Amino acid sequence: MAEVETRPDTATVDLPEVSQETALTTTTNNEVAAPTEKKVKKIIRRKKRPARPQVDPALVKSEAPPQTGVTFNIWYNKWSGGDREDSALSQTAAKGRCNIALDSGYTKADGHPGAYFCLFFARGICPKGQDCEYLHRLPGPFDIYPQNVDCFGRDLFSDYRDDMGGVGSFNRQNRTIYIGKIHVSDDIEEIVARHFAEWGPIERIRVLNTRGVAFVTYVNLANSQFAKEAMAHQSLDHNEILNVRWATADPNPMAQKREARRIEEQAAEAIRKALPAEFIAEIEGKDPEARKRRKIESSYGLDGYEAPDEVHFARGPNAVNPRGREGYELEHEQRLMLEAAEAAYTAEGQGEQQQQEQQTGGILSSSTLAALRNAQVAVASKPKTAAPTGPLVAYDSDSD
């Protein structure tokens, strides 16, 4: 083998591996430019973790609470009738508390649209975890349920309970909850906001510092229902036991106007979604040229004519505006084909019936005549009574 001489004026340079597509560019100073490295962005999609059991299933025991009444209701697991103590004063601390950051996850209910939320998850005592049949997460703005049930699937009533507890009423969209028995301190408003903001976006908080009472209004109805169950019999920064109830109607005129304005905004948003976008832009003045374009398009080739709104913005196969007929042509053709096939079938059936009548020579069909021939009907005739004879036949009575 030939030996390779190593000159003292040369040096070994380690070059990075370059593909055939990358060319080495040389400069006047005999320096080799390093190829540009391509940055590749890796998209890591983390799957949502499964919901964890909040309590150990082996420790779950179904035992009755201490007796405070006459009758024990096995459905609600509480005593009722003839309460010995005040229900507001005999509250016991909750057995658990939900931690949204740690307990949330997917369950069997995530694959079913319209599933309800887990009541035990809200209270922090669900032992099933990912095997639960209900949702283990916070309600969102798109979680909308019928008016007669809450987010947990429980039936609502026509009126509230006397103590404003329980499930609630379907006659009023109540998004405000009442919190009582709060430990009075200087930063009570900050404490209430920190604890109750965990259950959803809050619209307004009102705190009565000297009385230890707060009113929290949520943006969404489902969040208020979830927060009421999650904070019932809980404590804030101190060892108090909260009394969480539904709030009564606010008698403040400003609050009533605000609620009426909110309902009007919801109705306007629903109407805005139902109407065409160009019509909304014209009404709200977002498109300044919409009026001129509307005047030209709605004339339909007639000078001085402008179609009304119900004609110009109509939708369906019979709409005058060509835009309104978009997407309905195929449906209209299918309907015409079905009508034509039905008419042909009816005409064919009538032709067969007329042909059968002509063959029989009467209004009865051949099948009906055959059935009448095979039927044997025997009619029993009554025997005629013999006419009486004798000399006294023409008299009316024996006395004559």
The count of β-strands is 6
Low-confidence stretches are 1-13, 18-29
Helix content: 25-40%
**SSE order in H/E notation?**
EEHHEHEEHEHHHHHH
The gyration radius over C-alpha positions equals 43 Å
Largest sheet report: 4 strands, antiparallel
Distance between the termini: 173 Å
Distinct helical segment count? 10
Mean pLDDT: 75
What gross morphology would you assign?
extended
Sheet-strand content, in percent, reads: 5-15%
Instruction: Tell me the structural class.
Output: alpha+beta
Order of strands in the sheet with most strands: 4-5-3-6
Textual characterization of the structure:
This protein has a domain at 46-137. It is an alpha+beta fold and 400 residues long. The protein has helices spanning 100-103, 119-123, 188-196, 221-230, 253-274, 277-284, 290-297, 309-312, 329-360, 366-374, and strands spanning 71-73, 78-80, 176-180, 202-208, 213-218, 243-246. Strands 4-5-3-6 form a four-stranded antiparallel sheet, covered by helices on one side. The chain is 28% helix and 7% strand. It is built from ten helices and six strands.
Outline of the structure:
One of its GO terms (biological process) is mRNA processing. Helix content is 28%, strand content 7%.
